[in-house]
Design goal:
Helix content is 41%, strand content 22%. It has 401 residues and is of the alpha+beta class. It has two domains: 212 residues, Ribosomal Protein S5, domain 2 (2-Layer Sandwich); 173 residues, GHMP kinase, C-terminal domain (Alpha-Beta Plaits, 2-Layer Sandwich), CATH 3.30.70. Strand 4 and strand 5 form a beta hairpin. Helix 5 runs antiparallel to helix 6. The N and C termini lie far apart (44 Å). It binds alpha-D-galactopyranose. The site of alpha-D-galactopyranose has 12 residues, from helix 6.
């Protein structure tokens, strides 16, 4: 048995990476000055699997991001280099791939594919990518790659889509090219995040309200190290179960197009006509929409106790009704409960692994992170990564990187 203190020492607590020198990396490789764009990952405070049901979500952009450097080429090629994968891919701008290859380059090429489909002429270019959003951890590394790429390519072709249009375009890259049936949340917050704020998004009309996160509150993100993928089967199965439930309710009330339109009373009345699993999924979505709006109200009025209570309820619902948690994530949430400074903890993102979000009093954040990491390592036998983050601004061009 490893002692608790040695495990605590091992737990990687990452506050922020030093941005790499993307500019010199690009110049060394491509001999051209790049324009550089940054797009953040995100953490969702509450509102899970509600985006594709046209409901509410409340994410914040975080201080982990993808950087994309772009410069034009004259040989008609699209050359994409990923510093994270240490690999370069070459495409022909005049003969773009039409289908995915299940490779990291699907994400940037999905964006190019959608832009071309919108009627833009795509010239040759060199693109360098680097990111510090942990991959496959439910912190939207994919969306950050898509948004950084979209900004970079749009700047090259002289397009300038407004934020919501850019977010939709990136979502389509993922739905239509990568083949992941994600909603709009990740791309939207990567584009529109605001420093020190969470964003309550109405996924029906993309209207939003910003809720300030008080200075005394830290976002402590705990990575279970269990990989999650939106392109994986579980996410898609859940989405299908939600759509099943919607169809049953729509037979009785045709105005229910998405679960956003349904109430718990509808479910009480007609839930018995659904497969039991669909009924449970619907209960999660309908109640989660109510909790998410209530959580935004609580955050706006600074009622952290109520916000924490709603997060705990949301985790229970996500774990028990939506069955999207796993032993590791439930353990990470349980182990946080009696640590000093905790406001609320839950599994964040698409589910089945990934990270928990812990809202923690800032003064306790470092001790909380060390203790949680040590406890998790001792219980599960995996050393987690813990990120003490803050809410960051949305995507944009960088003057220097
Ligand atoms: C993933 C998807 C989002 C959303 C969440 C679950 O992050 O990309 O669209 O559905 O899962 O809330």
């Amino acid at each position: 048995m490893v002692s608790k203190s040695s495990l605590e020492a091992e737990v990687a607590i990452r506050n922020m990476h030093n941005p790499p020198v993307l500019r010199s990396l690009h110049i060394d490789r491509f001999h051209a000055e790049p324009a550089i764009f940054r797009a953040p990952g995100r953490v969702n405070l509450i509102g899970e699997h509600t985006d594709y049901a046209e409901g509410f979500v409340m994410p914040a952009a975080i201080n982990f991001a993808t950087l994309a450097g772009i410069s034009p080429r004259t040989d008609g090629k699209i050359v994409i280099y990923s510093e994270n994968f240490g690999e370069e891919m070459v495409f022909d701008a005049a003969a773009l791939p039409r289908i995915r290859t299940r490779h990291w380059s699907d994400y940037p090429m999905g964006v190019v594919h959608v832009l071309a489909g919108e009627g833009h002429a795509i010239p040759g270019f060199s693109l360098s990518l680097w990111g510090d959003v942990p991959l496959g951890s439910g912190l939207s590394s994919s969306a950050s790659v898509e948004v950084a790429t979209a900004l970079a390519v749009e700047s090259l072709i002289g397009a300038n889509d407004p934020g919501p249009v850019l977010a939709r375009l990136c979502q389509r890259a993922e739905n239509e090219f990568v083949g992941a049936s994600c909603g709009i949340m990740d791309q939207f917050i990567s584009v529109n995040g605001k420093e020190d704020h969470a964003l309550l998004l109405d996924c029906r009309d993309l209207s939003f309200r910003l809720a300030p996160i008080p200075d005394h509150v830290a976002l402590v993100i705990a990575n279970t190290m269990v990989k999650h993928s939106v392109a994986g089967g579980d996410y898609t199965t859940r989405r299908a179960e939600v759509e099943d439930a919607t169809r049953v309710l729509a037979r009785h009330r045709p105005e229910i197009r998405f679960l956003r339109d349904a109430t718990l009373a509808d479910l009480d009345q007609w839930g018995h006509e659904m497969a039991p699993k669909s009924r449970m999924r619907a209960r999660h979505i309908i109640s989660e929409n109510l909790r998410t709006v209530a959580a935004a109200d609580a955050l706006m009025r600074g009622d952290m106790a109520e916000l924490g209570r709603l997060m705990a309820e949301a985790h229970r619902s996500y774990s028990q009704d939506f069955e999207a948690s796993c032993v590791e994530a439930d353990t990470m949430v349980d182990l946080a409960q009696d640590l000093p400074g905790l406001i609320g903890a839950r599994l964040t993102g698409g589910g089945f692994g990934g990270c928990t979000i812990n809202l923690v009093e800032q003064k306790d954040a470092d001790a909380f992170a060390a203790a949680l990491g040590g406890r998790y390592a001792a219980q599960i036998g995996i050393v987690p990564e813990i990120y003490v983050c803050h809410a960051a601004g949305g995507a944009g061009r960088l003057d220097q990187a």
